[in-house]
Design brief:
This protein is α+β, with helices and mostly antiparallel strands. It has a single domain, classed as 2-Layer Sandwich (50s Ribosomal Protein L5, Chain: A). Helix content is about 30%, strand content about 20%. It contains four helices and five strands, in the order αβαββαββα. The two termini are about 35 Å apart.
């Protein structure tokens, strides 16, 4: 069982029961899924970029990504309907907790000039999104072998009813969120 999943069940769950004021275990917020996505718009000019991004995303998440295709043609961006423009992976269960553990304890601390994650990235419904500038912050990726730095979006979907509950859950899981009073120098 993943280390973070064990911590959630043994340490975090009792704290959430007290903070939220319920005895119903289904009313307590928990992680539902994590969606990791990469926009690879440059794949319209160079077809091997989607393959390289797919290989990197598979290495990072441990799961083969789904290819997202353009819904309609846009001539200004040289995109035709049906062309591959991105990749996404949806993680659930043990894989989700293992990825979140690596993200919090290994990858995020490797971000240069890191001062904490923005507290403004909650969506109002208990979910949190963050952007990563390049894939080399994950130790699984060999930075010398990377031809193009590729950013990615990570969306943490929870069962929390509001941002306050989600913020509490993420803080207890160890997510390094900045406080509202700290200057927002990094997004």
């Amino acid at each position: 069982m993943a280390r973070l999943m064990t911590k959630y069940r043994s340490e975090i769950l009792p704290v959430l029961f007290n903070e939220i004021g319920t005895r119903n275990p289904m009313a307590v917020p928990r992680m539902e899924k994590i969606v990791v996505s990469m926009g690879v718009g440059s794949a319209t000019q160079d077809k091997k970029r989607i393959d390289l991004a797919s290989k990197d995303l598979t290495t990072i998440t441990g799961q083969k990504p789904q290819v997202c295709r353009a819904r309609k043609s846009v001539s200004n961006f040289k995109v035709r309907e049906g062309n591959p423009t991105g990749l996404k992976v949806t993680l659930r269960g043990q894989r989700m907790y293992e990825f979140l553990d690596r993200l919090i304890h290994v990858a995020i601390p490797r971000i240069r000039d890191f001062r904490g994650l923005s507290p403004r990235s909650f969506d109002g419904r208990g979910n949190y999104s963050l952007g990563v500038g390049e894939q080399t912050i994950f130790p699984e990726i060999d930075s010398a072998a990377v031809e193009w730095p590729q950013g990615m979006n990570v969306t943490l979907v929870t069962t929390a009813k509001n941002d306050r509950q989600c913020r509490l859950l993420l803080k207890l899981l160890g997510m390094p969120l900045r406080t509202e009073t700290e200057k927002d120098g990094q997004s």
